[in-house]
Amino acid sequence: MKTIQVNNQKVLGSVSEAEIKAFRAKAAEAMEKLSKGTGAGNDFLGWLHLPSSITDEFMEDVEATAKTLQERCEYVVAVGIGGSYLGAKAVIEALSDTFAAYKPSKFPKILFAGQNIGEDYLSELKSLLEGKQFGIIVISKSGTTTEPAIAFRLLKEMLEAQVGKAEAAKRIVAVTDAKKGALRTLATAEGYKTFVIPDNVGGRFSVLTPVGLLPIAVAGFDIKKLVAGAQAMEKATAKDADDNIAEIYAMTRNALYTSGKKIEILVNFNPKLHFLGEWWKQLYGESEGKEHKGIFPASVDDTTDLHSMGQWIQEGERTIYETVISVADQQHSMVIPSDAENLDGLNYIAGKHVDEVNKMAELGTQLAHVDGGVPNIHIILPALTEFNLGELIYFFEKACGVSGYILGVNPFNQPGVEAYKKNMFALLNKPGYEAESKAIQSKLK
Ligand code: PA5
Predict the structure, then answer these.
(1) Which of 80, 247, 258, 297 has the greatest number of CB atoms lying within 10 Å of its CB?
(2) Which domain holds residue 178?
(3) pLDDT on residue 417
(4) How many independent structural domains does the chain possess?
């Protein structure tokens, strides 16, 4: 089985091997904190052995629930935000036909809601679902997040009006905390099928729980292979070692950060990986951006963004480095045809696969950016398969835990996310926020 590879050799013009190795002891210490549960945020380490603890029985329950939704629905709306959204979105986009929305399929089309508070977004979604057979997977660990709560209230009302309360209850699945939160109370009262998000798994580390697995299974993908990939990576990165790729990535990015490279750009050369970049940004941004520290995670889709961000990356402030994800094998084969008249001058690449050209664009970009002072970490994904994506997800999670501990922060909390919520609730006069409402109103005068 081909596995993902990490190559950090193209950072060596910016930081030396010795500067990276200087983090060796801290990486070992971080690995020990994770394995012994002695670091900050140790009540949120459920993701660490999650892949190896998933049972066949559990996966069959997820698959059976997915089948019920597949049988009843043309569309399934996954309602959630942040960690309750991005993992499923990333995996489904990576594995799906790019034009799946416009093609017939034997599986329901997965739509997403609750990841914004867009009045137009929700109105247009409801208009699409008018008269359609649809179901809802509502996902919220806390069960109290405003964005998904609004979307769910609107969609639930619509579904009940369309098919009646009893049938709606068969098409709604809730993924939430075992006991706490409004969503748990509501799901119990309405008799929905539910799945539990374990207490010790934080939102951004939850893609391998039903948060991600259920929507991915409904979309028709093989969650057993996804989990098998994660299990393989759990094993491969379990022990502190010089060749542990999670440690190599964590040490390299901390060496770069210390040398003044404050921004990491995750680059893909495959448009199906756009949302993998969004998922990765949440994982690293929420885990490391605290105490006024942390690499700023950004992402680009190349070659598209070479025609927009390429100038900045090549010649802007030298505070960036890139982590490029290459996909070695494509799912399809397409050769550029020869043209007798050659009016477009493209015959020099006639007979080549489109991907050969893409790979040369990738190599040319890497060389140009490295020459321009942008160090490059290279991650090679054998193919866009469930197994390789499972490996990649766990790799990034493990490296994130190690990297956050090397940086000296608690990688598993997100205290900063609460600030906007407090203000929003105060502005909306939410019961319980009377003092905050008064204080915020005085700031607006
Ligand atoms: O990583 C996190 O914990 C957050 O991004 C949450 O996933 C996000 O805020 C959604 O929270 P919840 O699942 O409680 O609705």
Answers:
(1) 80
(2) 50-226
(3) 86
(4) 3
